[in-house]
Amino acid sequence: MLGERVPRRLKRPLTCVDTPRVEAELTALTHRLSAAVGGYRSSAATTMADLAHAVEVVDSRLPVAQLEVVFRSAHVVSVAVRDVDDPGRIGLLTRPRFTAAMTGRLGFGRAVYSRRATSEITDWAPMVVAPAAPVSEVAVRAMQRYDDRRYDDVLVADDIWRIVTTADLVRSLSTLLAVRSLHDALTGLPHRSMLMHALARRCASALGTQARVVVLMLDVAGFARLNAAHGQQFGDVVLTALAARLRSGVPTGAEVARTAGDEFAVIATIPAAQSQQHAVALAESLRREIVTLAAEPPTGITPAGWPTLHSAVVCSAAGSANADELFRNAQAGLREAKDRRLLLQAPPANPS
Questions:
Q1: Strand-strand pairing, 57-59 and 78-82
Q2: Torsion angle of alpha carbons 140, 146, 150, 156, nearest 10°?
Q3: Most buried one in 105, 124, 268, 289, CB count within 10 A?
Q4: What are the structural domain ranges in the chain?
Q5: Could you report the per-residue pLDDT of 112-152, keeping only the tens digit for each?
Q6: Which numeric CATH code is attached to 192-345?
């Protein structure tokens, strides 16, 4: 039966990959912060629930001859088998396993099994995972199985029985690895190389037009002191919350990236401006808008625990923009902003 519910007592024992648990040593404050900004450790992960689809469930006593009717559909690659005598037991019968049984030695499989129960050709030790299990972990466990079962489908013990095919699992894993290679694992933002690619694309599009390309650099003031005072996990929460704020708050068409440990960048295009002075003013307005956007601490983080930002913005000339030069100039501006703040915070020199 398609969409059959999973017995309650079955869900926990069959879970082979648990959802990530919060470490015991986390302080109560970090627990609250993590709840405030979401599961930052797995924000970029794909779970089995995203891939799973309902699977046909049959009784273990079903005659194999009747099961053959089910497999006539090209869309059925596997069926789940419910043990009639033990509702807490679930099995899996894949199309290759069914075909091998029907063929049998010397081609007599169909004659041998047609009147027997489906239970006799079922795999009663399939891989069963929780819906929240990360795809990457399940793929590793699946590939650790013996050769004859390595490519079997994986059952998902959700409210109803679901399944993930090996092809979907491998395809999702390869996509996930590709995304992770181009994005920061903590925040989910593109990293520096992706930003430079996007920046070069904008510069090429602006060539010979009245458009100007803007690069805004931001970093967390006193981030090392923040980590030292509250712990690295608190710092991770702050970076993730800041990334989420920037991602959701930048103007339409702008792009955000994490370019270094506590450093972020925003790139945008000004389609047209009355003059270079006007374009610079628009870029500065964008800087102030984003700094103001990031200034308010999110729910769960006190103002004392939410840092301020250093910032700098540069704007290209109309129709002439070089990605490397813009990024270099923006970083130089950010260093100058840091130096100015350090100078303002330095104690006055003692008169001689």
A1: parallel
A2: -70
A3: 268
A4: 45-178, 192-345
A5: 887 889 999 999 999 999 999 988 889 888 888 887 778 88
A6: 3.30.70.270
